[in-house]
Amino acid sequence: MKAQNRNVKENKAATTIVLGVTGSIAAYKAAELVRRMQQQGWDVWVMMTEAAAKYVGPLTFQALTKHPVAVGRCEAVETSVYQHLDLSGRAGAVVIAPCTANVLAKFAHGLADDVVTATVLAAAGPVVVAPAMNERMWRNPATQANVQTLKDRGVLVLEVAAGELACGDVGAGRLTTLENIMAATAQAMEQG
Ligand SMILES: Cc1cc2nc3c(=O)[nH]c(=O)nc-3n(C[C@H](O)[C@H](O)[C@H](O)COP(=O)(O)O)c2cc1C
After folding, report:
1. pLDDT digits (tens, 9 = 90+) for 56-85
2. Which of 9, 65, 134, 160 has the fewest CB atoms within 10 Å, measured from its CB?
């Protein structure tokens, strides 16, 4: 009986989460986020913008997730030709953390010029966005309009936190806590 239960547990497919990492100084926090997601039993696949790969090496995420990491333009990705479609179609959620002002704007306008933006545009399930940027970038009406556009479309855009920013300014723009990102992702998946 015990062995049977174990088999049932082992056969249950883990929820796939796509974690998109973009070119923010907060990108290093995504490595810890991967660990938290794995502790939740989620199977995490990481995708990065080209800029993000300058902040944290793809190898870090590859080692943590045990999956290849897609970086940059879709046609340059060596892992799977249609990785942006394959993963976005079966992921329980697509989480972008940290999300730059630039990528946020691309999402709002439906651009799909790299593996992260193409994956979000093709997402079949919930999308969670955790922005991180300088306060002036965050408060810029263009960014605020982009946030509103995404929220109106049902994207879960998390609030930024206030405090000391990496650039030395103090204000709103810090990546929210990993706890908040985890809770929002779980909630987004529950609601479908
Ligand atoms: C040290 C440093 C830190 C940066 N941090 C951020 C940030 O937190 N948020 C942001 O929107 N842009 C930030 N930028 C600017 C982005 O890296 C830049 O806009 C880049 O083109 C973003 O590329 P991506 O959006 O394709 O990842 C930073 C730039 C530098 C040099």
Report:
1. 999 999 999 999 999 998 877 666 666 778
2. 9
